[in-house]
Amino acid sequence: MSSTSSIDSNKPATYHVEQTEVHHYQTNQTTQSSISRIHTHGEGNELVTIGGHTYYRHELMSAFGGSLNPGAAPFPKFNINPAPVGLFAFGVGCLLMGLYNARVMGITIPEVAVSIACFYGGLCTTLAGLLEFFTGNTFAFTLLLSYGGYWFSYAAIFIPQFGIAAAYAEDPVQFQNAVGLYLIAWTIWTYIVVSLLLKSTLGFVLMFVFLGLTYLVMAVSLFTENLTVARAGGIIGIITSVIAFYNAFAGVATPFNSYFVPKVVMLPEVSFGKGKE
Asked: Which residues cross the membrane (predicted)?
């Protein structure tokens, strides 16, 4: 690409490898290449080298909740972003379960959520994850398929044909504890995800921090059979859904189709006291 072919930084560009700049960089910066796999260079730091391939900055996606991408990466060859449908599906599921757990409108029988868990939270999140495979977004592929599996498995607990709840008919306390441990497992998984997002965006991190809190508080409510704790878990779930909607909206809203384009707030980098090499 010649210097006269610059593209506005707000417009996605087609992925390519800048062979000339790679050769120039390898010739003059061999030592630095062996130290870091990701670095910037060029007269105005307009070039970014990732794993031996060099791109212009405007050819990279930033860490962005709307694309479920936790770090800078080239724009996918397939011009599609499946993440928003997965985020919307997860947000609707969290909202409905949060409302039920908070006992809004006096509802104490939450079985209507099974339909959302199967056909929107489960099915659509899983399909979005499968589509992420073709965009090359490993993080989103892993995340969406995992949470799609969560919704299907959670729904199965309350579907009579699976016989899961019926197996505990004579010992409801054991059933509560078993579901509580199930939620603890998802709490651990969710905070593993959080550890992968500490260099991304505020909205991205908050979504999973609150999701982990939702799982944890709901697990405690099952262990203690405390209605107040269950309602608190429902409220946290509602907050989680709002953040999920924000990230999903960010994945589809542009200045061309909306008057409201969500702001992306990047988290600051922390050096942990490492000196320069």
From this structure: 83-100, 112-131, 151-169, 181-198, 204-223, 235-256
